[in-house]
Amino acid sequence: MMNTLGRWIRFTVLLVALAGSTLAAVEPNESPNEETQRDDIFEANRRLGRGVNLGNFLEVPRNDNWGVEIVESHLKLIRQAGFDSIRIPVKWSDYAATEAPYTIEPAFFARVDRWLDRAEQETLNVVLNIHHYDGLDSQPQSHAERFSAIWKQIAERYRSRGDWLYFELHNEPHDELNDHWNDILRQGLAAVRASNPTRPVIVGPTRWNNIATLPQLDLPADPNLIVTVHMYNPHEFTHQGASWAGPRVRAIRGRTWGSEEERAALAKEIRQASEWGKSHSRPIFLGEFGAYGAAPQESRVRWTRAVVEEAERHQMSWAYWEFAAGFGLYDPDKKQWRSDLMGALMQSR
């Protein structure tokens, strides 16, 4: 009788210990399923890997031309060069009706379709966003309904695409949208989730996806979100000579980069993004970074290499800005990569 009782007690203690270890593996208030979903989104961010933006292309205002011609064969070059992803900025707002239900023009949808088809053929992941929706940034409350309607259409059209397609809600929220973004991003996300309940969605902070404003980003309890930030600091270096920069920065020439203090500031800024991500259990995608072509080339290469090193040190995915324009990796006239910049980006491959 005593032996039987002893075995029963030992068996009970073992069950309690096993249950305790299982519960300890799950964070408070988090179910095992939620923990698995959280791991999945970190894996989705890892798959994005190294990317390049197809800038100055589909985000150009309607009937305008910014001098960049991207053709489908360029995607093969991008894949062969070792990139995992492309980010496609799109100015959907110029191709959607201004009255409800804000229908997106079929011909424009078909144009985007072709790029997604080709990217899938080349096994490239795609980040598809809303870019340069100026009305949303300047009059967010007047455009919130249209913003959600546009996303509803995009999400429904591409709901059957594979997990290689990622949605990014809005590029660089700024101006008046700064004060309304936490509410409006929820509306856009709800429009996506109605048809794409688990697709990775990318969302960033205000003031042009500024790392410094990450603390003001208030995200819903959605386990399939990736947080994006952009990196162009110091602005006086990365944007010197750019026609769209302010007069002071536009007039700068010859500013170099690479002192110990400058390197430390860059590392600190990227580390801040990483620490925010860890504290909020969110993966980080560095969706844009680059130094404009007017900057001294050696410093451009040095800065680019430093950004990549720091981003990858902190397990961030990234997408360089951009393919073939003022920041470009590819020289469309010579039909070849700029080898020094490519070396800075792909240094460990």
TrEMBL record:
Keywords carried by this UniProt record: Glycosidase, Hydrolase, Signal
InterPro entries reported in the protein's UniProt record = GH (IPR017853), Glyco_hydro_5 (IPR001547), Glyco_hydro_5_CS (IPR018087), Glycosyl_hydrolase_5 (IPR050386)
Boundaries of each Glycoside hydrolase family domain copy?
Answer: 63-323
Q: Does the keyword Magnesium apply?
A: no
Question: Residue span of the signal peptide, if any?
Answer: 1-24
Which SUPFAM superfamilies is this protein grouped with? Answer: (Trans)glycosidases
Q: Which PANTHER family match?
A: ENDOGLUCANASE, GLUCAN ENDO-1,6-BETA-GLUCOSIDASE B
State the family it belongs to.
Belongs to the glycosyl hydrolase 5 (cellulase A) family.
Q: What is this protein called?
A: Endoglucanase H
Q: Which gene encodes it?
A: celH_2
